[in-house]
Write a structure and sequence with these properties.
alpha/beta, 3 strands, 83 residues, globular, 5 helices, three-stranded parallel beta sheet
Length: 83
Amino acid sequence: MGFGKSLIFYTFSILIGKITIQIVPLSKLGNKQLDNIWKLNSSNPCLITAKSRSLDRALIKKIKDGVYIYVLLSPKQALLKSF
């Protein structure tokens, strides 16, 4: 039900053409938000987890290259030196 309030945050990156980084405390919450963001045209979000990083070794490089405009990650992932 909270999608309406979050819509502002989700569309911000699309409107300004800049990357948004959102820290999410729980991976389950991150997955739900990722699903909601995917519903928007031109959103191209990603969720950084230990699993997603192991499946895609170039994930951080893709973010730096602007492939993803909306990045969700946990505080633990944000503190990693590679991020």
